[in-house]
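Duplicate of #3305? Posting structure anyway:
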């Protein structure tokens, strides 16, 4: 997807890293979907040290930033993240300015910028929510790697007209397309409206991430997590599709829907366990 775009250090090698290519591709795709206007949305992706070392110098010296929310659980881990104030639209044109590869220090108090975030840029303003969610999802699933936040249009719209009870919200989404229950049998968490960018919303989101892979921020967007970019993007795509159908129906009289009995039959046929408390 990228051209031979030599970066400021004259280093073409970095840009060939598959994880940079993946970030370029997905941010471009999400911007095309209209979910990530202006500087909306952010992504963080846990990487293996050997993979990072293959493409960039990991021994320093590096720029160090202090975290206002120490994350000891992530000590020594590597991530590629989108930059604060950066536009998804611009990532593919200039990955070194808009993305950064970083390592959490051994005490979990700081991050070291190993590549990118050119010109003193900082990691995403939602780093607290990302890092706290990574810590929780790693407990739930050792294969976990990605946290993705986006302003998915129909999900946001639905938070104006649907009750914010997460069990009811989940049930409605399951009813909107037959595949939904199979894709997210664990359902969707919902936090109250909160000020973004804070450690408070980070903690509230991460608390939900103990047993949800997707958490809605009312009138703002969604946080989704997963083991691969395909799985993570596929999850948000499916939730957004269901929300779109809900909005297209738009409160008109529904003549038929998928009944709870049918949803249970579906779960049995696809060997998934619907979250307890959602279906009657
Ligand atoms: O990065 O989406 O929530 C901008 C945002 C903040
Ligand atoms: Zn946002």
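Output from current build:
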């Amino acid at each position: 997807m990228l051209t031979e775009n030599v970066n400021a250090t004259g280093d073409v090698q970095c840009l060939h890293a598959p994880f940079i290519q993946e970030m370029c591709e997905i941010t471009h795709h999400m911007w095309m979907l209209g979910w990530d206007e202006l500087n909306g949305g952010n992504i963080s992706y846990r990487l293996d040290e050997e993979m990072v070392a293959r493409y960039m110098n990991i021994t320093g010296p590096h720029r160090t930033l202090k975290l206002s929310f120490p994350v000891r659980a992530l000590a020594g881990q590597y991530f590629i993240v989108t930059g604060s104030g950066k536009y998804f639209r611009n990532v593919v044109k200039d990955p070194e300015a808009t993305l950064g590869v970083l390592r959490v220090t051994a005490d979990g108090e700081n991050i070291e910028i190993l590549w990118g975030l050119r010109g003193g840029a900082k990691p995403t303003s939602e780093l607290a929510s990302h890092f706290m969610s990574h810590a929780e999802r790693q407990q739930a699933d050792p294969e976990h790697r990605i946290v993705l936040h986006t302003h998915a249009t129909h999900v946001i719209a639905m938070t104006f007209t649907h009750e914010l009870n997460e069990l009811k919200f989940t049930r409605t989404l399951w009813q909107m397309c037959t595949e939904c229950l199979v894709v997210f049998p664990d359902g969707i968490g919902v936090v109250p409206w909160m000020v973004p960018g804070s450690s408070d919303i980070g903690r509230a989101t991460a608390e939900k991430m103990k047993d949800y892979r997707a958490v809605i921020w009312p009138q703002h967007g969604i946080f989704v997590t997963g083991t691969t970019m395909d799985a993570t993007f596929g999850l948000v795509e499916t939730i957004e599709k269901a929300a779109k159908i809900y909005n297209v129906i738009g409160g008109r009289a529904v003549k038929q829907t998928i009944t709870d009995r049918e949803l249970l039959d579906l779960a049995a046929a696809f060997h998934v366990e619907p979250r307890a408390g959602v279906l009657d």
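Confirmed duplicate; merging threads. Residues 40, 149, 151, 196, 220-221 surround zinc ion (ligand 2) (CB under 6 Å). The beta strands are 42-47, 63-66, 78-82, 99-104, 110-116, 146-150, 189-190, 214-217, 221-226.
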